[in-house]
Specification:
Blueprint: E1 3-8, E2 14-19, E3 25-29, H1 35-47, E4 53-58, E5 64-70, E6 73-78, H2 84-97, E7 102-105
Parallel strand pairs: 1-7
Antiparallel strand pairs: 1-2, 2-3, 3-6, 4-5, 5-6
InterPro entries: YegP-like_sf
Organism: Flavobacterium urumqiense
Protein name: DUF1508 domain-containing protein
Length: about 120
């Protein structure tokens, strides 16, 4: 199953990504100034995944992507996919596993790495 991963951007704002079972990023959220806003949107998405809308697009270079909309607001944008079938598989994974996916928080700067 996938996971929601909260982290900090280089500009000190927060974001979350949804990673697939294989560890690939499926989509990346918009930026949040405050961490609790980011956490709230993850919770809202998990609770309302069935009512989320996925607007599909094709970029000028022929790649496919979607914008994740929740209650009329733009929440996230997907990575680029080479085919519309792969795009749909990404959407299907979110719908299937989104509400049961764990939340990982990598936004703290206090990680200790040992040799």
């Amino acid at each position: 199953m996938g996971a929601f991963v909260i982290s900090k951007r280089f500009n000190d704002e927060y974001k979350f990504v949804f990673t697939s079972r294989k560890g690939k990023v499926v989509f990346t959220s918009l930026s949040y100034e405050l961490k609790f806003e980011c956490e709230e949107d993850v919770d809202k998405l998990k609770e309302n995944i069935e009512s989320a809308d996925f607007l599909k697009f094709r970029s000028s270079n022929g790649k496919y992507y979607f914008k994740l909309m929740l209650k009329g607001g733009h929440l996230a944008t997907s990575r680029k996919y080479t085919t519309s079938l792969r795009l749909q598989k990404g959407i299907d994974e979110i719908v299937k596993y989104g509400n049961v996916s764990e939340i990982l928080d990598f936004s703290a700067n206090d990680f200790i790495f040992e040799d």
